[in-house]
Fold each of these.
Amino acid sequence: MNSKSDYEAEKDKKLTITNRFGDSLENYELSNESEHKTRVYPKKIPNRKNGILKNSEANHSAVENSLLEDVDLADILGTNWPKRAGPAAMILNNKSKTDPSNCEDIILKPASPTLTKIEPEEPLRFTIADYQPLIEIPGTELAIGSLVEVSNPGVCEDLYGVIRWIGIPPGPQKNVLVGIEIEDESNLKNVVASDGRHNGVRLFTCHDGRAIFVPANRCTADRRFADVDNTISANRVSSNHTKKFGVADCPAIYGSIPPLEIHNSDELASICGKFKGIQGHHNSCYLDATLFSMFTFTSVFDSILYRRPGPQDIRNYSEVQKVLRDEIVNPLRKNVFVRSDRVMKLRELLDQLSSVSGLTCEEKDPEEFLNSLLSQIMRVEPFLKLSSGQDSYFYQLFVEKDEKLTLPSVQQLFEQSFHSSDIKLKVVPSCFIIQMPRFGKNYKMYPRILPSQVLDVTDIIENSPRQCSLCGKLAEFECRDCFGSLQAGSGLECTAFCPKCLKTFHSHIKRTNHVSKKIYSPKEFKIMAEHMVVPRLYMELFAVVCIETSHYVAFVKSGSGPDAPWCFFDSMADRKGEQNGYNIPEITCVPELTQWLSEEGARSINETSTNDKVLPEHAKRIFCDAYMCLYQSTDIMMYH
């Protein structure tokens, strides 16, 4: 038998070199066309697809390769391989050009014998609770609301915006992260932007593509608002302001800013925290809680902000309107923070221009503030037009105490008050502000009151279609004497009758002395009455202002509808410093409030917690301390 040629001997060694793509030289045919030239041709392998071995042959080659002793592969396989032979050939070709000592670190490992699908890394799943919010960037004067510029050399131009969130994200590195709403998204060429979410968690809310998150050391004060000629810019915090009100900036914002749009609890949580809302100062809580309720999440009062001055308005009308809109409402809606010196401007104007004195320093009630602002200065058209010919901005409940009631609802007291006063409203109001039956800061007629989430005003609207309490048809008569026990739930709805039911119901000997009167029904409705259900008119609760020991706070609904989450606002929740310090406002989520305000939830908590001291903190405030309930009609407010 002839001895094997050098070429066949080399081939019998079956050395396998696996490159990083899982290919091996065993899968190539070697051809010596000349002494100095070696070519490689791929073998035809049936189970081969896209250059990757999927059968067990690669596994055998890898095992054999792992058993080999150290050999100089370049000496065996040569150093003149074509590029198509793969990365392994490149290593062999370069070996002759590299010092041997430098090649000892090059280790060729066999690839996995099977085809592995690499799944994308599962993103970390965090919640808002995993983030630690901060009020300011430590060691700087930058805080939430500050105007800043962001330097990102080599990536994009300098960016300008306002700080919307500061905190420490989850993870081993406790570096401060800053969330910024950028003023011009056209500069965001190579920067990842969002709508206020970070790792899928909403930290604040803005338009999509306007939010960026950067390390704290990338942020500096916006130089465009720097002091010029020793004149302090209106949008910069002076050292005097820093001592009085803290470092949080509060620039005036011009134009028309809509109310905050909150769709769920996560979005609400992103705007909650300290230094949120309106900062209190010098007994301003009565005004802070009322303004926060009026403008943060609803537009029912927005006509005050935009009505042009008329000949009947006072000379300072536009000045008051601009301060209210540009320095309080717009910053509140845009940055969720208003510094107390901005509010003091409004207080000073109200104190000078209205008959209510002491608005800058003394304790006042919300109705005193509303009377000053709405009636005397802004000349707002009264919300309530009574059948008696009187107009009003709010309605005080006057009722006789029913000892049987342990937890009356606002709906019950509301109907009882209108019945005893024998008045009605001429039209459905866009806003209905109801004062609870309590007088002064101490006397409360009922220790607990349930704020009704929906207020049925059908039976107190003059000349509005009503439903017969017995058959449900169009009512044509009203009998005030049929107003029954509130405990039994028979309120104003049970005073309306159609002619047939009126006669039948009053044939009873106990009701023969009742006096009924005919009520007006629109002719157009009479024609269609047989073919449609008489509609009922409802208004939605959107805020409750509460008082305890002369301090006002507010529960405010962050949207419209039964599922909108509620928040709690306190303009003086915390304080930094003593006599020369400043108050820290805070917004808190109250996810349980919707359940507490339901009839079933209220009854349960009232029965299980008969002692006010064992009530949950927020439940105690909403049931025991309610001072004023604010309702709105989403249908009517569109026309105002």
Amino acid sequence: MLSNRWAGLVGAMLVEACTGLSYTFAIYSEHLKQTLHYSQEDVDGLGAAKDFGGTVGLVAGLLYNFYPPWVTMVVGAVGHLTGYGVLWLTVTDRIRPTYGALCMFVTLAVGGGSWADTACVVTSMRNFPMFRGTVMGLLKSQVGLSGAVFTVLYKAFISPDTSGFLLLVAVLPASAMLLLAHTIRHFPTKRRHDDDEPPEAMLRFRFAYGLIVGLAVYLLGLFVLQSVFSLGRVGFIVGAIGMLVVLSLLAFLPVSNKLLRGKGKARWVQLEEMPANTRPGHHLWPGGGQAEADQRGERRQGGGVEGGSAGIEEDERKYDEAKSSGMYRTSETLELLPFPPESQAQMQGKRQSQNEREETPHAILRLQWSPSRETATSSSSPKRTVVSPCPVHSLTLLQSSLTLNFWLLFFTLGSGAGTGIAIINNYAQMGKALRVNRVEQFVGLISIWSCFGRLGAGYASDLFTRRGVPRPLLLAMASSLMIVTLFFLASGALLTGSILVGLSFGAYWSLVPAVASDLFGLEHFGAVYKAVASALPFGALILSAKITGSLYDQEVVHYCKSLGGDVGIAKCMEEHTCYGHACFAKALVILGGVCIASISAAALLTWRTQKFYRMKNSVVQNDDDEDEGGID
């Protein structure tokens, strides 16, 4: 029972909860700066090297199809342990690598997590091809929460030993990757148990979403209590135990469907998730009319509808009652009425003609109902065949990189999320410039709200896409929210800024992989996804190290000179610290301009793909009125 794709999803979620530790950089960046006597530009250079670790995952994506996913997990664990281990040895003065060598090991540390992320994301996307946005929301929300989870562990058991925190993030995630590697594997999706059909699958997804949202709210409450009452170590120990208990509830996901709906008998499902020809009051038999409805009533002997006009009236009454709540109480099984052979042939012909008109291969969900009339009279449900939404011809990395859509997506991520990572990497220094202590609190809040951003964007993107709304439109909305974040940070509102940067930055990591799989397919998704994700380290290098860091260093010089006196200037330069709103003012203005460029790129990508998403939705919904083409 536990050896199924749901158990694999649980394993992937737990591993992903250990792969977002690059976002905890603010916890130990100031410690690195003081211990190793680095300038702010040097520290931001280490931050950029950390972000370049994501490009290491490109190799994992290219090689993903050549060996089982567990191999990728093991390689990731070794890289993670080695990189963070060297960083811990450095800050504890056990070794003294050069600055360049330290940057290389920081890249290796985060690269190990990127390898594990590749295995989790690609495997889960292939195991759940019908729920891409939802699955990405679950996985990436765990990445977002990882910073808060490890911050709580740090405050409970290690604080204020920052060096000990580096040892924790070196050992614990690597151990989790090795222990859970066997759960990250492919499961067949062509034949599915009834529990894996869309209505039942959504019950499981809602259970998982509820757990993650509950964990995020729990952690949020913990940090709010810390800010109001200043919890001591005992308070955080109690909080950490509760957090681990909530995380352990994920183990019930593989069996949660039976727990939620029970065995057999009637159950409640969402009306919109029921196949059209099983909804009460929806007589969608091709050709329509009373005669066909009467024939349906005769065929469904013993199925809950007695037939004729009385059966139709009963159906309509049930439908009217269900419309207000969106839920319908079904029998033990959903009996599917197959389309007549001639109608099935017409539908397949329409789909074939639509595929021939596509200018770029893409992913479309195809639902086919068994054409056998004999099944309709059976007491059991007819067989339902689900064809995977993989495109007929997925694009390779080279083919994808030759399209304008690839580079628009690349630029949107690099500029939008790059702005977010520039803010996150410098949050400790922003807090110090405004004389705000306890930067760990902001790291935790950023992680928690990043989780909400990932969950919300993943779920909303699937919801909007089913209605024909282009998924890239949500990328433009995320970049717009990032601009609002910059306004709050410029005014010194660090608390509000941490919430908004978490929401907007997290949204990218649910949206970008889903958009990439939509436009370029799943066959080579590992390589394409990591190639697009490599935009972030380039954005971080330019926006964080070369712009934000260098401008901060210039402001330090101006601030120290304003103090007057040789002794005061010398001491100020030695501490290399700037105080006041002006320290990051210029950088925030430049980042705002970059976000405007990100919005423009996302808007252009939305315009270029709107026909594609409308057509995709029309095929899923069997919309006979829609005849638009593919991607321009």
Amino acid sequence: MSRFNRRSTFQVSALSSIICLVILGVTITYINAFSWMPYVSILGVLSYVCCYGVGLGPIPYFIGSELFEVGPRPIAMALGSMANWGGNFLIAMVFPLLQDKIGPASFYIFSAITLMLLIFIRLYLPETRGRDASEVAQLIDSGFRSRPLASPINSSVADTSGNEEMKAM
């Protein structure tokens, strides 16, 4: 894993997982229409497992250990693992209900959630490869943005606290 950028691998994994989930939604919808559709569906499941296993599964643990300095790292990693397993439990409980109610369209919901994750990764997650925790902490302190174009808004430009209304009274 040290040869690849975590952020780009995470993005490729998320994008390919979205594609696999959409393929699953389409193939299961039309599974009886074509004799070869079940095979494409199986290929979609296997591809999703591979795409998830390359990035979405393990990379949060890599990045989590690189985002936090030694002091808060154990608590942060424990909370991250708890959120991961809580999410797995939630998916295991919700998926059968969704499958009963909306059928194969449930895969589109999960692909939309993964798309939101991809957008979050693209906008906010810094690259952690080759950086120690103090360097990553400086990146986060400078606005937790992954790109210079997404720099934090200067709070002195606009007063959104509502104090202007109070001054007018």
